[in-house]
Every structure is written in structure tokens, then in C-alpha cells.
Amino acid sequence: MFLSTHAVVGAAIGSLLPSHPVAAAVLGFASHFPLDAIPHWDYPIRSGFVNPAVGGQLKSDRALTLDALTIGADALLGVVGGAVLFASPEGMSAVLLAACSAILPDPLQFAHAHFPHEPLQSIQRFHRWMHTKKRIRGQVIWAVISQLVLAITIAALAKAAHNNALAAIAAWAHGQG
What pTM value is reported for the model? Predict the structure, then answer.
């Protein structure tokens, strides 16, 4: 699953808990695992150092540069996109924390590859267990579109939840006036 998809879903969760950033972060982190259970396509990791299945030595080469650019751009796109879609002045910290927390299990895989100790071992074991064994292969465009559709669906559901909550508050306020 793309990091940007995880971040947008995390941001949507954070937007529902604007005054509870710690709860938003915990739920953002937890959202990562059911999303990874959905069949999806992952872009290739080229560097043995970055690839959690390899855990190789650090080599400053083209593969590492490409991975850093790809992963960094993916994460940044998701966090910024999630903030643009969902952040409000009072909920900015919850949205950003949840978006970043939703991404966190993937960098923890990298950390586990280099430091295979608790609690990283348990998190990695759970991550592998939750992760789908079925991959979308072949046409990358369909894999990208499927993740885009998922992110748009989650964004629409979160926006609908906000609109319903605002309508309920307005109706309650009107009845109190």
C-alpha cells in the first residue's frame, strides 16, 4: 500500500478527533494494518539497506537515492494531501499526527531489519500476519487507480461524517435558540 494512501486515511481519522490528537495518532497507527490486508501493489524497493526483507548495509548509490526520493515523495504527498483535505485550525495536530502515525508501521519494518529486538519484533510479526499475501500484479496503472479510489472513498466518507456532525450540531443549536 502506498504511504500516501495510509496518510490520507490517517488524516481522515484525525479529522474526526480534532481535540484528541493522541487518540487520533493511535487510531492512525492502527489503521495501517487493515489497509495492508487489502490486496494491493507496492512500488519496488531497490536498495538492500531500505528493503526490510534484506536489511543490507548502507551503500550510498543510485538505488538508495531512488528509494529515498520515491518513499519521501510518497509520504510527503500523503501527509500534505491529508492536511489539505482534512486539517482545520483546531484539528491540525490531530490530523498531522494521525497521518504520520498511519505511515509509521512501514518505517518500523526498516528499523526492525536493522534492530531486530522488542517491541519491533512483535510489531513486525503482527504486520506480516496482517499483510495480504495476494498482490495486484501486472498492470501498475490499475494498482495505482485502486489505491486512489480507496483514498477518495475514505475521504468522502470522512467528509460526509463531518457534514452530518455539523448538521446535527446546527440543528441542536437552532433548537436551543
Answer: 0.79
